[in-house]
Amino acid sequence: MDAIRAFEKIGDFDLTPGVDDLDQLIFMLCKKKFVKEAQQFFDRVKFDFAPSPKSYTILIRGWGEVGDAVEARKLFDEILQRGCSVDLIAFNTLLESLCRGGKTDEAYKLFKEMGLYGLKPDGSTYSVFIRASCEVNDVHSAVKVLDRMRRYNLAPNVFTYNCIVKLFVKNQMLDDAYLLLDEMIERGVSPDIWSYNAIEAFHCDHCEVHKALKMITRMENDGCMPNRHTYNMALKMLIRVGRFDRATELWESMDQRGYYAPVSTYAVMIHGLCKKKGKVEEACCFFEMMIDEGLPPYPCTCELVRDRLLGLGLLENTQILTNKMLRSTSCSIQELSKIMAGHKNSMEAAEERMKQS
Questions:
Q1: Where are the alpha helices (H) located in 263-345, listed in sequence order?
Q2: Cys-Cys crosslink for 340: which of 143, 322, 327, 330, Cβ 3.0 to 4.6 Å?
Q3: The whole model's pTM is what?
Q4: Using CA atoms, how far apart are residues 246 and 331, in angstroms rounded to an integer?
Q5: Signal peptide location in the record (predicted)?
Q6: Same-domain status, 28 and 107
Q7: Are residues 94 and 151 part of one domain?
């Protein structure tokens, strides 16, 4: 590989690579999923560099990310054989690699032996098992580990908390999910957009209008601004259940919140309204807003609007939209006008350009 060949030629420039350089190389290789190549090179040069626990940790994590717990464990054993001290980062990385490789029981056994290595579990150690439990939808085990962390006054990070929030939501334990949000704030771990959106998705999927809108308000109050996914979920739900008044209110409030609708959010409104009886003209209003703002709609949106208008016998409206698109300063919108005008093959050509861009 080019990176390895370049590393081997460093000596030609009267430079001597150190263990930090080696670590950087194997880190980049593992990041690109060239773990096997990184391992082979490491085995070839390790006796020239006296690698540190960090070197091994990089490779252990690399093997873990590709799901090979056996190779990860071999490296850990090699650290011990070489008489190197095992640090907590290396230990936690091995535990995570074992769990990712489906060897959770082996990870638990190793966890119980931490004291033999002079190590004490930290928040990251316990978080490994929480995430592993969440992966297999094991609520009991995840909560059990979380309770242990509470006893030792160890707070999970936001990523681990989010795993449990999603687990609760998946199992329809909404009260527990909300309590966990409160706990995060109390313990100084600020919920992020993923925390809130996990719960918002449940409310939207179950058409719980009041709770979904209340969650958006709570997000703002907690200092986490709703994002595109939040609004798209809520707007889609509101249109689906026929609460067009609330959808309009939410849309109009977005500007006040500093959120400016992208193409996907416009598409939610247009596609949703087109499917509702008597709402095609409102859909066209949003379509025109897009054109006025210079936002090229999706090709499928153009086709949908055209089909709905023609289905209602409103050919003149398609011509009005086509002319409006042709007057746009956006070349993309001008090109998309061909779909609205009904030109053959325009849809396929537009979709192909979108894939390439």
A1: 263-274, 280-293, 299-311, 315-326, 331-341
A2: 322
A3: 0.84
A4: 35
A5: none
A6: yes
A7: no
